[in-house]
């Protein structure tokens, strides 16, 4: 492509809210064979809400919710906000905590009124040596509904299973259809539960799902998909997406995302919608054409 066609292309992109931070990205996008996307905040709104809670025998629902909210008040994770908001909305008094610690990709823990409280994914409970079988049917049902199951343990005893749901952005289905029309595969990479991820992917017609990925695992997954497909674009919004954005042939950040994602990306989608991705690829094909 000539410098002029790249200038024209990046100018056209800016008009549609697609900011090319590197001219090279416009050329590379033309060859993208797969678009790998983060789930939370990219396909979904990124603001989950509490939908379900079931307590184990001997535990009080409001007490469990209040104490887990106390722990989550110390966490920045979107799941944490869902729990805290639910407890506040119900007018529950949220106690103070000590010894807060976060185990990234697993969950969080703290001491509340002398009791040890742990909140997180099933793999967190398993890591702590707890048996989650009691809730396995409930967890499967919640996952199949596209909800994320979470567990709470109090002093080493499983106290409750909960679920949060994060709505899909209204613009996501059409964006995925547009990528398919361009002959591009879509892969989802997420730290979320496998069933949950698969339910959402099925609803959206996503071609490949890589779930329960630990934060460090996103880059590795990008490397593997790149080798498999040839050329890969990655779309994400979070702090933990930055390494994957850097590893991709082209990294695209959601404009409403974190500063680190935006700074690492080659392209910024100002609208905050996935539709910017097929728009950018179509623009690349139109401006770069087949001239090498
Ligand atoms: P993602 O951003 O894709 O959800 P993470 O690695 O941040 O991936 O989290 C993976 C999983 O770990 C979450 O889906 C959730 O089940 C669990 N988790 C992480 N942080 C928390 C938290 N503060 N409270 C409860 N669960 C958490
Ligand atoms: Mg995200």
From TrEMBL:
It is found in: Cell membrane; Endomembrane system. Belongs to the cation transport ATPase (P-type) (TC 3.A.3) family. Type IB subfamily. This is P-type Cu(2+) transporter. It comes from Falsigemmobacter faecalis. The chain holds residues 453 to 744 of 811 of the full protein.
